Automatic annotation (TrEMBL), chain A:
Main location: membrane
Keywords attached to this entry: Cell membrane, Membrane, Transmembrane, Transmembrane helix, Transport
Protein name: Putative aldouronate transport system permease protein
Topology with respect to the bilayer: Multi-pass membrane protein
Gene Ontology BP terms: transmembrane transport
GO annotations of cellular component type: plasma membrane
InterPro entries assigned to the protein according to its UniProt record, in alphabetical order: MetI-like, MetI-like_sf, UgpAE/MalFG_permease
Lineage of the organism: Bacteria, Bacillati, Actinomycetota, Actinomycetes, Propionibacteriales
Ranges of residues in domain ABC transmembrane type-1: 83-297
Keyword Transmembrane (UniProt): yes
UniProtKB/TrEMBL annotation, chain B:
Keywords from the named record: Cell membrane, Membrane, Sugar transport, Transmembrane, Transmembrane helix, Transport
Gene3D superfamilies from the UniProt entry: MetI-like (1.10.3720.10)
Membrane topology: Multi-pass membrane protein
Listed GO biological process terms: transmembrane transport
InterPro entries in the cross-refs: MetI-like, MetI-like_sf
Annotated protein name in UniProt: Multiple sugar transport system permease protein/putative aldouronate transport system permease protein
Family: Belongs to the binding-protein-dependent transport system permease family.
Gene Ontology terms: cellular component: plasma membrane
CDD domains to which the protein is assigned, alphabetical: TM_PBP2
Phylogenetic classification of the source organism: Bacteria, Bacillati, Actinomycetota, Actinomycetes, Propionibacteriales
């Protein structure tokens, strides 16, 4: 390839188009799909600035300026409720869900038997591939009012626990579902990073008299620091996005006070309720804030000398 | 963004998977007995928490009414296993139809996605081609933000795809992350091999079909399976775009009759002159059939995903 490409810089654009027509044709369907379903819809965000009425169409609906954004700036109670719930759930998930795979990965990494390690991995990765509908259904069968746990309690003459459908426990419930589904899968990245640790470092640390805990602190943990930072950055970008499918499946019995998050707010106000403009405005702001957060967090990571999502040197 | 989207960021897995840990040599003490016991207990508990629910779902789907009633709705081991619930599900009613829809979408969607993704990934492997940078950027940016629920819905509606099976396939046909993974894999192929094929007179098409694709089976398998699992599990696009209950995929049926506990009548199951089996075992049987395809491909998926996804993927 290198020989033919030497003079590519001087070839005219038209000649390159002709020369590359085979690869370009190969890529065309994919490019078309991405443009059509990823970039074109972004233009649809203009309805955030319009009083969109489906029967008139996007083009003819009147402009209303920032009218639709008033729910955000004036703090409409329903919107604020969704925002608060989103932030609380995100916070809980950073504190409880984020460390879970790290702990499991460290545990797995410390195992001496490769075979046990592989068996445990196989079991723990499995729930990741189940849909949220399946996970929610399984949790209902276990913890629901007629589920395994309550049946067991009733059989022993104990009071049943009202877990599914209790607004107070909702956030705990969805957090435990996230851990059940994805904590195992989350270990992949950490295990990959751990597998690259030079084993001589452990020996050197041991020779210097480091205990196993000291080795963990000084050898193992630094090895996964880059991945941890990367994942935290991405988590920050997702701080306004919490398990939409998972929540919409369980919203019914719990009520919106405890369970409405920004995405479900957009869905139920826009698509179900017909408040197209307002919910697009909320969705748009949410998306922009997410991108801004990722870029900001990445900048901070660079300041601390981490690689972040993309390297700074290019 | 899911963790799956990040696997590539870690890069190459240098230590071969089977290499023994050498930490016990040079005077490093192996972990103490209580410590090892503790680890064992913790890991066993983790595995039980995952496996037990799945086992009991399968058991309940096989149990009869009497046992379900005595057990209070949930069975750990069926005494008189029967396949009545499955017969009812496959009698040609609501569930059978949803299963067919889901299978169709999964197979058609995964094949189309794989073809389109491979094409796009391959077209992005050569830095000097026409419009290479903007095209690559276009793919990478899809990872950073998504168009949002309302604009996506409006686009699908504008295209007249509401209540069409294509609405479940086309919007998610190409996943930027999968493109990047596949591209990285293609770029890792030994360049000499491609060069020598060209010297031997192979055209672009032949190089692709005779050299590149056969060498990329692992990544094609992984990406294809990821797409298949995503199509099979897809719930939200159907909720958004499919109003006609006759076109529901399995996940929506699962939501309605299992999560929301709607009652399945003999009529809906297409049972003639027969009482439907207990709701609980019906529900569990629906759950099981939606799990089975995943369990079937899981060993394959597992064998390949480390290979496919962790193979030197940082060439973005």
């Amino acid at each position: 390839m290198s020989a033919t490409v030497e003079g590519a810089g001087t070839t005219s654009r038209w000649a390159r188009l002709r020369r590359d027509k085979f690869v370009l044709l190969l890529g065309l369907p994919g490019v078309a799909v991405i443009l059509l379903f990823h970039y074109l819809p972004m233009l649809g965000n203009v309805i955030a600035f319009k009083d969109y009425q489906p029967f008139i169409g996007i083009r003819d609906s009147p402009w209303v300026g920032l009218e639709n954004f008033r729910v955000i700036f004036n703090g409409d109670p329903e919107f604020l409720n969704a925002l608060t719930n989103t932030l609380i759930i995100s916070f809980i998930q950073v504190v409880l869900v984020f460390p879970a795979p790290i702990a499991i990965a460290l545990l797995l990494n410390s195992l001496l038997s490769e075979r046990i390690k592989r068996v445990v991995q196989s079991v723990l990765y499995l729930p990741h591939f189940m849909s949220w509908v399946i996970v929610v259904a399984i949790f209902q069968q276990l913890l629901g009012n007629a589920g395994l746990l309550n049946t067991w309690l009733h059989a022993r003459g104990l009071e049943g626990l009202h877990i599914i459908g209790d607004p107070g426990l909702f956030k705990v419930l969805i957090t435990s579902q996230v851990i059940w589904k994805d904590a195992g899968w989350g270990t992949i990245l950490f295990l990959a990073a751990l597998s690259r640790v030079d084993l001589a470092l452990y020996e050197a640390a041991a020779v210097d008299g480091a205990s196993r805990w000291r080795q963990l602190w000084h050898v193992t943990l630094p090895a996964i620091r880059g991945v941890v930072v990367l994942l935290l950055i991405l988590k920050l970008g997702d701080v306004l996005t919490v398990g939409f499918e998972q929540i919409i499946l369980q919203q019914g019995p719990v009520g919106t006070d405890a369970s409405e998050v920004l995405d479900t707010y957009v869905y139920s106000n826009g698509i179900l309720g017909g408040n197209w403009g307002v919910s697009s405005a909320v969705g748009l702001v949410k998306g922009l804030v997410g991108v801004a957060l990722i870029l900001a967090a990445n900048r901070v990571a660079h300041l601390f000398g981490e690689r972040g999502i993309y390297a700074n040197d290019r | 963004m899911t963790t799956k989207a990040l696997t590539f960021a870690v890069g190459r897995r240098d230590a071969p998977a089977g290499s023994p840990r050498l930490r016990t040599v040079n005077g490093v003490a192996p972990p103490s007995i209580p410590m090892r016991a503790l680890k064992g207990v913790v890991l066993l508990a983790c595995c039980t928490v995952v496996v037990l629910p799945i086992v009991s779902v399968v058991s309940t789907s096989l149990a009869d009414q009497r046992q379900i009633t005595t057990a209070g709705g949930f069975v750990l081991w069926p005494d008189n296993p029967s396949l009545n619930a499955y017969r009812a599900i496959f009698a040609g009613g609501v569930v059978t139809r949803a299963l067919t829809v889901s299978l169709g979408i999964t197979v058609v969607g995964a094949l189309l996605s794989l073809a389109v993704t491979a094409g796009l990934a391959y077209s992005l492997t050569r830095p000097r081609t026409f419009a290479h940078k903007p095209l690559l950027m276009m793919v990478l940016l899809t990872l950073l933000f998504s168009p949002g629920i309302i604009p996506s819905y409006l686009t699908v509606r504008q295209l007249g795809l509401l209540d069409s099976y294509w609405s479940l396939i086309l919007p998610v046909l190409v996943n930027g992350f999968n493109v990047i993974v596949m591209r990285a894999f293609f770029m890792d192929l030994p360049q000499d091999l491609l060069d020598s094929a060209r010297i031997d007179g192979a055209g672009e098409f032949q190089t692709l079909t005779r050299i590149v694709l056969p060498l990329s089976k692992a990544v094609l398998a992984v990406v294809g399976l990821f797409y298949a699992v995503a199509y099979w599990n897809s719930f939200f696009s159907a909720l958004l775009y499919i109003n006609d209950t006759a076109k529901w995929p399995l996940q929506l049926v699962l939501r309605t009759y299992v999560v929301d506990n709607a009652v399945l009548s003999a009529d809906q199951l297409n049972l003639v002159g027969e009482a439907p089996p207990p709701q609980q075992s019906l529900q569990m049987a629906i759950l099981v059939i939606s799990l089975v395809p995943i369990l079937l491909v899981y060993p394959l998926l597992q064998r390949h995903f480390a290979k496919g996804l962790l193979i030197g993927a940082v060439k973005g």
